[in-house]
Structures are given as structure tokens and as C-alpha cells.
Design brief:
By secondary structure, the protein is α/β, with parallel strands linked by helices. The protein is 41% helix and 17% strand. An eight-stranded parallel beta barrel has the order 1-2-3-4-7-8-9-13, surrounded by eight helices. Strands 5-6 form a two-stranded antiparallel ribbon.
């Protein structure tokens, strides 16, 4: 594929930064100063976008952080994770339109199909609610009067003035492996996000989501979220990966995995399956290491290798239809610099949705 691919980094807002997994250090905790330093390092390194994750009980707030960073960034986009169970849609539309203006049209949005804090909704209705929010959000942010009477959202309302002025809904990135999540993505998302998996499994998922989207007369683009450990040689990279988990207590690793609100999802279950399928060193296929998933929920594998191997692996996913990568590594600022030095210059990349 000849078109550029978007390459994003990760901001570690959710207390997910370590030198040794499972061993917290005060200077790596989620804070304004630390996460800002990751963001500015990512822009200087040449990344196209930056994922701002969101967890109700973890770290600092992603929306507040995005607003604070707007004046520090000149080029890089922000991929803001939004937990749709936590805000009413008109307020969400006003916030996103305001952030998009502050960023000069460089806002992208990662829709999270979350519960309301303290509430648990079954998967199928929760994803139906998420789709309704996405549909109403698009209408309001396009500056349209919106009348919508759904199962969960019931409004008859003019859009907020800032949305009327911009008349633009930022691209919606969305992920989930369950049947309900896939159907929601096919009907409402712009970019379908995947967590790490084998090349064969990624190809099958891309084919499936393309088929589902076609039933709605829509097309999807595809994103892939994965950690990276890149060093000058494969031996150095494998040693660095092994060192990451060298002090991990299994009980602490299990506690970290359960801390996330999505710890029971189909996607998290698949990451566990990959660990079970891996060899004794944690590799489920060439250069794909599952050890990082021993100490975190969600994205649980890393591409590990020398620069040639990491680039080749990313391009192999690109050939399967991946349009955007969201990379991360430990500690996040240091690995960001290494990826910026050894990987980014060798891949044609640019924002997936250039600022208007």
C-alpha cells in the first residue's frame, strides 16, 4: 500500500508507566508534568497523533489534559478517549467542539463503550447505548438540530453554538472484539481499533469488519494498538523485554489486570488466550511478545526486535489493511525516543485525518 500510515504514541494518563512492570515509581505516576513531557517528546520525535486514555479510577482526566496541552502542541493530533457513559451527549458535543477549535482541527476521538461509574450494564445494551451516542454526537457536532428518540438517548435540541460554528465531527475511533462491539463499529465508527494479535487473526478481523460495514453502506479504516521494544539488535530487544517483567510479582500482575474497568471484556479475554498460546519466552509468533500482558489489562503484547524487524512487522500489518498504529513502550518517554529514532524515519506516515 502506497499511502502513508498514521503512527501515534501513548500518553500514559492512566497510571501505566514503569521501568519494571508492576513496580510503581513516583516520578512515573500520571501527572500533568510527566504526561506533558511524554506528549512533547512524541511531537518532537515526529509522531502524528497521541492517544489520551481514560479510566474513571486511574490517573488524570483525559479531556482536561487535552485542553491543557492544546497550547503546547503545534503539529501533532490528539486522540482523546471519551467514556460515553459518563457525560450527557450535548455537553460532550460542546466539549469536543471546543477542544477541536483549540487544536486547530487536530482532534480525533476514541469512543469507549463505558458504564456509568457505579453501574454495570450488560454488553449488548451498553453497545446499543454507545451507538446512539455516536449517532447523536455526529448530528450535534455537524451543527444540526437533532431530534432523536432512542432506547437510551431522547433529545430534541439545537446544537451548542461552538458546534454550529465548526460544523465538524472529529473522526471517531472505536474498538471492541465482541459481536455487539463489531456491529457498533460497523454502523458508527470511522476507524476500528484492534489490540495485538497474530497476523492471521488481524487479517480475519479486518475482513469481518469490512463485510459488516458494507451492510450499512459504509467503509471503515483500521487501527492497531501495540507496545514496542526496539533495540539495535534482536538480542538486546529480547533482553530488554525480559527485564521489563523481571521483578513482577504474579499477584501484583493479577491485581493490575483486574484494576481496569474492561477487565472482563472479550478483547481482554483474547489477550489472555494469546499468552496461553505463546512459547516459554512469551512469543506467540515471530517478534510478538505477550509478556507485557502479565501486568496490564487491555493491550497486552509488544513487537520486540531490532529496527529492521519492528519495521517489517508494522509493514506486514499495513499490508493487511491497517491504516493507523498506536504504539507505546516502557518507560513511555524513553521508548518514544527510541521508536522516533529507529522506526519512524523508515515508514511513510502522516495523520490519518489532516486538519481542515
Amino acid at each position: 500500500m502506497s499511502s502513508p500510515v498514521e503512527i501515534a504514541w501513548f500518553s500514559a494518563l492512566c497510571d501505566d508507566d514503569y521501568r519494571l512492570l508492576g513496580v510503581p515509581e513516583a516520578d512515573l505516576r500520571s501527572s500533568w508534568d510527566h504526561c506533558r513531557s511524554i506528549a512533547t517528546t512524541a511531537e518532537a520525535a515526529g509522531f502524528d497523533n497521541l492517544l489520551l486514555p481514560s479510566g474513571y479510577t486511574l490517573g488524570i482526566d483525559s479531556t482536561t489534559f487535552a485542553a491543557g496541552m492544546a497550547g503546547f502542541l503545534e503539529r501533532m493530533h490528539l486522540l482523546l478517549a471519551v467514556r460515553v457513559g459518563e457525560l450527557v451527549v450535548p455537553q460532550l458535543a460542546r466539549q469536543l467542539a471546543s477542544l477541536d477549535e483549540m487544536l486547530g482541527g487536530r482532534l480525533t476521538v476514541n469512543i469507549i463503550s463505558s458504564d456509568i461509574p457505579g453501574e454495570t450494564l450488560e454488553s449488548a445494551p451498553r453497545y446499543r447505548r454507545t451507538l446512539e451516542v455516536m449517532q447523536v454526537l455526529r448530528s450535534l457536532m455537524a451543527g444540526e438540530h437533532t431530534e432523536f428518540h432512542g432506547e437510551f438517548v431522547d433529545i430534541d435540541l439545537d446544537p451548542p453554538r461552538i458546534a454550529t460554528d465548526r460544523r465538524r465531527c472529529p473522526p471517531l475511533y472505536f474498538g471492541g472484539l465482541s459481536e455487539a462491539a463489531r456491529d457498533t463499529a460497523a454502523a458508527g465508527a470511522d476507524v476500528y481499533l484492534m489490540w495485538p494479535d497474530t497476523l492471521d487473526a488481524v487479517a480475519a478481523t479486518v475482513d469481518d469488519l469490512r463485510t459488516r460495514a458494507a451492510r450499512h453502506d459504509r467503509t471503515l479504516r483500521f487501527g492497531y494498538r501495540v507496545h514496542v521494544v526496539v533495540r539495535r539488535s534482536e538480542a538486546e530487544a529480547r533482553a530488554a523485554a525480559a527485564n521489563l517483567v523481571s521483578c513482577l510479582d504474579p499477584v501484583e500482575g493479577e491485581a493490575i489486570r483486574r484494576r481496569s474497568l474492561d477487565s472482563g471484556s472479550a478483547g481482554v479475554a483474547r489477550q489472555g488466550e494469546l499468552r496461553d498460546l505463546a512459547d516459554e519466552d512469551g512469543y506467540v509468533e515471530a517478534n510478538l511478545w505477550t509478556g507485557v500482558g502479565r501486568a496490564r489489562s487491555g493491550c497486552g503484547a509488544a513487537i520486540v526486535g531490532d529496527p529492521d524487524q519492528v519495521v517489517a512487522k508494522l509493514l506486514a500489518y499495513r499490508e493487511l489493511g491497517i491504516d493507523a498504529f498506536i504504539l507505546s513502550g516502557y518507560p513511555h518517554r524513553d521508548e518514544c525516543e527510541l521508536v522516533g529514532q529507529h522506526v519512524l524515519p523508515r515508514i511513510d506516515h502522516a495523520p490519518l485525518y489532516p486538519a481542515p
